[in-house]
Design a protein that fits this description.
The complex is a heterodimer of chains A (428) and B (237). Chain A has 428 residues and is α+β, with helices and mostly antiparallel strands. Chain A contains 8 helices and 23 strands. In chain A, the strands form 6 sheets. Chain A has a 5-stranded mixed β-sheet with strand order 4-3-12-7-8. In chain A, strands 5, 6, 9, 10 and 11 form a 5-stranded antiparallel β-sheet that branches. In chain A, strands 18-17-21-22-23 form a 5-stranded antiparallel β-sheet, with no helix packed on it. In chain A, β13 and β14 form a beta hairpin. Chain B is mainly alpha-helical. Chain B is built from 6 helices and 5 strands. In chain B, α5 packs across α6. The longest helix of chain B is centred in the N-terminal third of the chain and has 15 residues. In chain B, 32% of the residues are buried. Classes of the chains: A alpha+beta (428), B mainly alpha (237). At the A-B interface, α1, α2, β3, β4 and α4 of A face α1, β1, α2, α5 and β4 of B.
Chain lengths: 428, 237
């Protein structure tokens, strides 16, 4: 997917960037204009005056039976990068990370990646078939699965192509596009190991093929050790049924692993004694190195981090004290430490890990920061519980070259310009 | 085999740790693998679901493996596939597999994997012919997945192989010979051996401040007088 993007002629790419920028700029400029236009009205709602909403009645319960965000937050949406893919059916949209708090991504904002669009599945007519090297091949309904013991875990979900457009050079000028193929939800379902035990797995079993019910019938081979460890067959995210774009009514979640292995609209699991080498584990999701060889079954999403404030979408507005914030995550476990640099990696300060620090989940970090109005090169560097330290671009490129597309987890730099503008850069 | 799954999981992770000290996987904090509702479980313990019949399985079991496992009966030549490909595939992938607009390129690119712009196609990159049969059958043509007969999948697969100079125009692809087709990049893959980088969490004076250059920045923002002058060469996307 990123490969297609990389082939885009420069003019087209520039147009996209311009449009993207105008969009982001438009948002800010629009807000500023509004603020000015309604300055007079605004002050009527400020102390010592009593705001108009304090002097009237609002709409009643069930005005929005499902609920929706304030109309003042309508800019918080997923966005896509049109030149990345031929159409929006086999395409991707990005999570607005700059706008989110805590570690949970609201269901409406979880990034999307489809290969044949979003199927409209009637759960009554959806089935999960589990067969192959098992004693009792079984077809499960949703009700069957809900009768089995459930597990809920908070885990990140990341497309291995996250940041893939940045392998050669800084290209995208918004956090949403540099890191937004990333979300984190509480997932609820049945452990795959429970299902496998229920059907009785045979001696020679080594892999499980997971397959979707969408037109792409997306399929991935999952090694048995993952299937028997923490792989989860989920029907709910953040407390409600899965969203259609997240695999409703059933999805595989392989915590910490490539989002692509977390097969959506799951219809079939086949146990076998060898891997299948399907398109998504050969043509795609293999990492080409400079010497022409490619890494296969590179399942784990390695430790990564990014500063979410300040960032291009959320620049500082005036000199003074701020809480810098960011997100760190590792597919190998918990985040142990995050350091932040303001001078392009010469000196680092230890950040504070906020709230829940969970394995294979987004971890929020923060740091008190005094901005003097001057320029800075802001970076974050995460270390996970295995001691793995997030690499620099130089290190990553030395190990892999420029054509890997996937698994780009290099230390990211935001350039804070004099006056407060923030841009995406890469530095030596 | 997996009646005592908990023990096995422990074993499996122990093996992993033993293999590679730096990579140990943590199943996770919130995951209670010995949960209260999980007594020692035997197959059929929950007794839910219904037995899958051979007919039901046959209808959905579409996967093909490199060793040919899963292939149905059938045989067809590249010649047989030519018209089918023109009718059903060329509009997106091009008559020669060159790709139209941003639709995937299916042919060419031999020897480009080490170049700065590698072209990964069926011929230059895919390790197994089975993957092609499997993928065309499961997902193509894009707007009508699984609409091709097995016979047509053999024909079109043969034709795409032909477009990649891997078989002759008269070559007949069959259930029995598909696994023996040697793809050029068959040995080009190796199993994940990461971590392949090692950084250190240095805290002070970690590099020479004077050496820092901005190597790239999206074009549009290189307007303001840069703190550090851009040394970027046009990436040539």
């Amino acid at each position: 997917m990123a490969a297609e993007g990389q082939k885009l002629p420069i003019a087209e790419r520039r147009n996209f960037l311009k449009n993207g920028l105008m969009l982001a700029g438009g948002m800010l400029a629009g807000a500023a204009a509004n603020a000015q236009a309604s300055d007079k009205n605004l002050s009527l709602n400020l102390p010592p005056n009593l705001p108009k909403w304090s002097r009237s009645l609002g709409p009643g319960v069930l005005t929005n039976p499902y609920g929706k965000p304030s109309r003042f937050e309508s800019h918080i949406v997923r966005r896509n990068v049109p030149w990345l893919t031929a159409d929006r059916i086999a395409s991707i949209s990005f999570t607005p990370l700059a706008e989110l708090s805590g570690i949970i991504t609201p269901n409406s904002l979880v990034f999307e990646r489809h290969h044949a669009g979003i199927p409209d599945i009637d759960p009554e007519q959806h089935r999960l078939m589990l067969h192959g090297l098992v004693d009792r091949p079984i077809i499960f309904t949703l009700d069957d699965l809900r009768r089995m013991p459930s597990t809920s875990v908070i885990r990140f979900l990341e497309c291995p192509a996250n940041g893939g457009m940045e392998w050669r050079a800084a290209q995208m000028d918004a956090l949403q596009f540099t890191h937004g193929m990333l979300s984190c939800c509480e997932w609820t379902g049945v452990l795959l190991s429970t299902l496998l035990q229920e059907v009785g797995v045979q001696e020679s079993a080594a892999w499980v093929l997971a397959e979707g019910a969408d037109g792409a019938h997306l399929s991935r081979s999952i090694p048995m050790h993952k299937a028997m460890d923490d792989a989860l067959i989920v029907y709910a995210q953040n407390g409600e049924p899965l969203r259609p774009e997240q695999g409703y009514p059933l999805r595989l979640i392989n915590p910490g692993w490539e989002g692509n292995t977390c097969v959506k609209w799951l219809r079939r699991l086949e146990v076998g004694d060898a891997a299948w080498y399907h398109r998504e584990e050969t043509a795609k999701y293999t990492d080409l190195l400079a010497d022409g060889r490619a890494r296969k079954f590179s399942f784990v999403q390695e430790c990564n981090s990014v500063v979410t404030f300040p960032c291009p979408e959320k620049p500082p507005t005036e000199k003074g004290r701020y809480e810098l914030q960011g997100l760190a995550w590792s597919g190998r476990g918990k985040i142990k430490q995050v350091d932040v640099s303001f001078d392009g990696g010469v000196n680092w300060r230890r950040a504070h890990l906020k709230g829940l620090v969970l394995a294979k989940a987004l971890t929020r970090f923060s740091l008190d920061w005094d901005w003097d109005g001057g320029p800075a090169l802001i970076q974050s560097r995460a270390v996970d519980q295995t001691g793995y330290v997030q690499p620099t671009y130089t290190q990553l490129r030395e190990a892999r070259g420029l054509s890997s597309i996937y698994h780009k987890n290099a230390i990211h730099t935001w350039r804070l310009h004099e006056g407060g503008k923030v841009t995406n850069v890469q530095i030596s | 085999m997996f009646r005592l799954a908990k023990a096995l999981v422990v074993l499996a992770s122990a093996t992993l740790v033993a293999c590679s000290v730096s990579v140990n996987y943590d199943s996770g904090d919130q995951l209670d693998l010995s949960g209260p509702d999980q007594p020692e479980q035997v197959a059929g313990y929950y007794g839910v679901g219904k037995a899958a019949s051979p007919e039901e399985i046959a209808g959905w079991d579409i996967d093909i493996r490199p060793d040919g496992l899963g292939l149905p009966d059938g045989s067809a030549s590249a010649e047989d596939g030519e018209m089918l490909y023109e009718d059903q595939c060329a509009v997106c992938h091009g008559s020669f597999g060159e790709g139209v607009d941003r639709y995937p390129v299916l042919a060419g690119g031999e020897g480009t994997l080490t170049e700065s712009r590698p072209e990964k196609t069926v011929g230059s990159y895919w390790p197994y012919a089975s993957t092609l049969w499997d993928y065309i059958h499961r997902a193509m043509p894009f707007a009508a997945p699984q609409s091709l007969s097995d016979q047509d999948v053999y024909a079109i697969t043969a034709y795409v192989l032909y477009l990649n100079d891997l078989v002759d125009y008269k070559f007949v692809l069959t259930r029995d010979n598909l696994a023996s087709i040697e793809m050029p990049n068959r040995d080009g893959f190796f199993v994940d051996d990461r971590p392949d980088t090692s950084n250190e969490a240095c805290m002070n004076n970690c590099k020479d401040a004077a050496s820092i250059r901005i190597t790239s920045e999206p074009e549009l923002v290189v307007d303001v007088s840069p703190v550090v002058k851009s040394t970027a060469t046009a990436p040539g996307y």
